Every structure is written in structure tokens, then in C-alpha cells.
User: What shape does this take?
Amino acid sequence: MNDAILVLNAGSSSIKFALFAHVATMSEQCRLYSGEVDNIGAQAKLTITIIEGRGANDNSIESSVVVDNHTQALQTILHWLEKEAATLRIVAAGHRVVHGGTAFAQAVRLDETVLDQLQSLSTLAPLHQPHALYAIAALMAQHPHMPQVACFDTAFHASMPYREQRFALPRSLTQQGVRRYGFHGLSYEYIAGVLPIHLGDAANGKVVVAHLGHGVSMCALYNRQSVATTMSFTPLDGLPMGTRSGAIDPAIVLYLLERGMTGGEISDLLHHQSGLLGLSGISGDMRTLLSSDRPASAEAVDFFCYRISRELGSLAVALGGLDAIVFTGGIGEHAAPIRATICQTVAWLGLDINAQANQDNALKISADTSKVSAWVIPTDEELVIARHTATTVFAA
Assistant: This one.
């Protein structure tokens, strides 16, 4: 049998997974399968993509399944793999864990002590952390001897300068862990790793990466390390997202509390009813908004692009200039109108977009004469997790 590494990314209503062949050379992990169980507890669906070599002739399978919870979803995934990938032996599992707090600045092998520490951070990432920990516990129960590794979205930002990590709050709170952590680190780590392939010597320059998906953040890189980012203490801060508010005046929370809203109601408002959904009153899905002719949709899209453009200027200040911008994530990789608007708004930075290349979702979307280059690079967080898992479990 051939050894394989399972990667899991558990969300509120889904478990995404990937299976990688485990090879001796850690940098050459090969993806074999990708998939997810979506709509857990409702009309659940299992989707599997069988990788047939660098994306050529990939075979997708889709079927309805009955799963009421994450344990059943995980059982469905494992059962499919045991049946259809019988020649593979899963030797380790890696998990995306959003918040590592101050204790974890690199991937760590999971045990009960680590789990207890991560459980205490659940309130800081309520849309993500509890579900990841639930998947870990479920896999531990089913396969107690399988090594499992937590890979953190916060870890990549440990390189940020101390002043970037602080809030203007009493030092005692900073010492208790109330600080800027940053997120989407697994995505930024992947992009940082492939920048030299595309940008050459400029890869180590002043680069801003825009991870635009249902969750949205940006990161300023210098020497391919994080020096500033838009999210902070939790993944709620920063830019407007699909249903999350992004940065707001903290006194708004006090205002709502004084008028009778509970903490739970305010959390639901900021996490689930705001962002693009709140702005438009229609949808938190950018594809829906771009295809809509309703004025509220256009207003939401305009606000989204404006805030990103404004934050790009801020990150350029943190870097002391700008050499390149990279778009990634679902919106970043596929929404040409969003990229065009952002690039045109920050043309003053020396960015000249190639309209046709942008429309074609090309790798490089800036004009050859542009002082700042612009790129569209798909991210691969799962590959980063597979590599960290292999290194943590098997490296000498």
C-alpha cells in the first residue's frame, strides 16, 4: 500500500478535504483527491475530484448524502476513501486551525493538552475554531493512533514587527494576548513560497497579497515575510467580507448593548448579517452581486472595492512603497471587474492594468510599462498543510 496524508478544513456547514501521496521529499507532496461534504444537516452533498495529473482530465463525482453532523460527514469521507482509494494508507492527518493564539507560531502535533489550549481560543474565531476542533476529536475517536497536526492561520504573521502586533490598550491586556494576530496565513505562506517562480528577484521586494474570498484580508510582504495585515485579534476585523462587517467603530457595540441587544445577537449581526450581505440586502456572494442590476448590489461592490483600495494605500505605507500586488482567493482569482476597479483606483501608485489580460484571468494582469506589477495566483492552503504535517510527523 502507498502512504497518504489527509488534510481537513472544517467549516460551520462543511468539511473540505484533500488526500496527498506522502513521499520522502517533503516539497513534492502530490495531490490525489480533493472534495467536501457540504450543507451538513440539510441537503448534504458529497463532491469528490480525482486528480489525474496536474489537472488534466480530472474526474469529478457528486452525490447526495444523509449527514446530520460533522462526525457523520467525516465518516462519509473516510468510508469513501477506504472504498475507492483502497490502495492508500492514511498515515497522518493535518487540519487548518484558524487561531493559534500566543502559544503556537508553527504547526504542532495534536494531543489532549494542545486541544485544551486551542479550545480556549474558540471565542476568538467562532465561525471556524469549534468546527475544526470537532473534526479533530471525531477523527481521534475513530483513529486514536493516527498522528494529527494543527496548522495555524495565525502562524505566518508571527514575523510582524511588535508595533504592528499591538493595540493602543493597557500593556496588561497585551500581555494577556489581546493583540493583532492576523489570519489567512496558510494562504499567504503558499503565495510567498511561489512568488520567486513568477516575480523573480522582485519576489523579495514590497508585495501586497489580497486574499479575496468569502473571508477577506490583505497582507504586506517584505522578503516574503508578513510585516502588516488587515485582520487583527479575530477574523472579524479589517475589510468587509461576505457576511462579516470588517472594521467598525468599537463604540457601535456599546451603542447596541445600551439599546438592549445581547452579546450573542451582536455577534450574529457582525458575523452573519453584515458585510456584502448587509450592504446589499441581497447576498453575500460576489457572483450574485456582480450579476445583479439592483442599485444596492452596485453600492455593495463599490464599497468593497473602495475599502480594499484604501487599505492597499495603508499597506504601501507600511512597506515604504509597492513593487507588486497579488490577487488570490475565490474573488481575487475569478472576479475580473473587482480587480480592474481596485487597480484603476490605485493607479497613482504606478499601477497600469492590462485590461485584456485581466479579463482573461491571466497570470500577469499589469501592462509591461507598469511600475507596479499585478498578478493573479491561485492559492493552495491544503498543500501547505500537507507539507507541514509531513514535516511535523516524519522529519527527523
About this structure: The chain has 15 helices and 13 strands. The longest strand covers residues 88-97.
